Amino acid sequence: MDTDSNTSQTRKNLIGLSREELGAELAVLGEKPFRAKQVWHWIYHRGATDFAEMTTLSKVSREKLAEQFVVERLEVARHQVSEDRTQKWLLRTHGGHLIESVHIPEEDRGALCISSQVGCTLTCTFCHTGTQRLVRNLEPGEIVGQFMLARDVLGEWPTPTDGGRLLSNIVMMGMGEPLYNFENVKKALKIVIDEEGIALSRRRITLSTSGVVPMMARCGEELNVDLAVSLHAVTDEIRDQLVPLNRKYPIEQLLAACRAYPGASNARRITFEYVMLKGVNDSDADARALVALLKGIPAKVNLIPFNAWPGVAYECSSNNRIHAFARIVNAGGLSAPVRRPRGRDILAACGQLKSDTVKKRKSELLREQAEADAAA
Ligand code: SAH
Ligand code: SF4
Q1: Which ligand has the nearest atom to the CA of 207?
Q2: Hey, which of 36, 85, 130, 216 has its CA 20 to 30 A from 210?
Q3: d(Cα 84, Cα 196) in Å, to the nearest integer?
Q4: Ligand 1 pocket mutation, candidates 101, 206, 207, 273, criterion most atoms within 8 A of CB
Q5: Residue 251 to residue 310: CA distance in whole angstroms
Q6: What is the 119 CA–ligand 1 centroid distance (Å)?
Q7: Backbone phi, then psi, for 174, in 5-degree steps?
Q8: Contact yes or no for 171/115 (Cβ under 8 A)
């Protein structure tokens, strides 16, 4: 039996319910509609996890709520802090699956890299997450829950109204393909954006996709967040190898969807991510072809030095190569910053996330194999 859903607990977790759903739950208990607004404020503005804290509610209401519901965070299986202050959380979902989120601090702001799935069904050949076999979609509460936990640890409740905070941005760039779990990602981000709660501006949210073309328009229309596209190659031949989804939605279709992305403009450019792989996609000719491909699209390029992981066949391009590539893209009129790898020492950098679930499984498999061999 699947024990992941909230309903399988004796008390239901309120995190992840839409405002309407929260209202409906409270109505069943005989609470007036304005109570939902108050509870929402306590959960998402104040960060309350205990109904006893919700002092604008009557004592009777608080007790009634506590009998039926919880406001529960994901369980932290491991918390690591990198020498560059990047933090990574390994979180356990109700069903025991492990996911990861990463906080990347800057001077006076910072982004949380949020996972949308346990593992990923796609198998990009340079990405550690893509090698994880165990996959399921995360629930809305597990997605927004990653944000809430980071805000707990950073001590940033109640939501400040003046901006200055270390958790100021969200990047949907953790484990998983967010456009393959669009409904749940949408519900979670709607909660994050809601002005009476966490109230994060859409402009502070970037969703990265490997190129799920049929979902891109909906992402723009229904969420209107900034878009990042994992391009990584300028020919279908190379992209087919790196991002196998390209065989389904080749570069031309992907770029057509980018041209049509609702809300993209020169003030709100689409970010094209490009992982720098030695001898694979990093030549001067590739850089020139990239400029040509992106002509007419409000674009910027983000060059990502490849982050290695155990057993991977690729190597990162040299610094000189990356900068020569960047100069050509810049000369072509596109901004092309090189992403500074963060948290490499704790395997928290882009593409390194892969929860221990499978590692454990693999070691179990190896042990079973060894036992079988011995028996034979
Ligand atoms: N599934 C989504 C979002 C998660 S990955 C996507 O693919 O866009 C976030 C970014 O990290 C993507 O651009 C991805 O291609 C890149 N990435 C994956 N593995 C990497 C690695 N080992 N080194 C550097 N970047 C990597
Ligand atoms: Fe999945 Fe993105 Fe990794 Fe590809 S790069 S396997 S889409 S997480």
Answers
A1: 1
A2: 85
A3: 33
A4: 273
A5: 29
A6: 12
A7: -85, -145
A8: no
Look at residues 75, 73, 63, 147 and name the one whose alpha carbon lies nearest to residue 113: 147
Rounded to the nearest angstrom, the distance between the alpha carbon of 13 and the centre of ligand 1 is 31
Catalytic residue among 100, 139, 142, 177: 100
pLDDT 10s digits, 218-237: 999 999 999 999 999 999 99
Backbone angles phi, psi at 158, to 5 degrees: -70, 160
Q: How far is CA 160 from CA 50, 173, 199, in A?
A: 20, 25, 10
338 Cβ contact partners less than 8 Å away, ≥ 6 residues apart: 303, 304, 305, 322, 323, 326
The pLDDT assigned to 163 comes to 62
Residue 290 token pair: 């990239």
3 state DSSP class of 146: helix
pLDDT in tens, 23-50: 999 999 999 989 999 999 999 999 999 9
Atom of ligand 2 nearest to the CA of 130: 6
142 counts as catalytic? no
CB 272 within 8 A of CB 211: no
For ligand 1, atom 13, which residue shows the shortest CA distance? 230
Using CA atoms, how far apart are residues 253 and 211, in angstroms rounded to an integer?
9
Alpha-carbon distance of 339 to 103, in angstroms, equals 15
CATH numbers and ranges of domains, the chain: 6-70 (1.10.150.530), 75-362 (3.20.20.70)
Q: Is 350 a catalytic residue?
A: yes
Cα 355 to middle of ligand 2, angstroms? 14
Kindly tell me the sign of the dihedral angle through the C-alpha atoms of 76, 86, 318, 280: positive
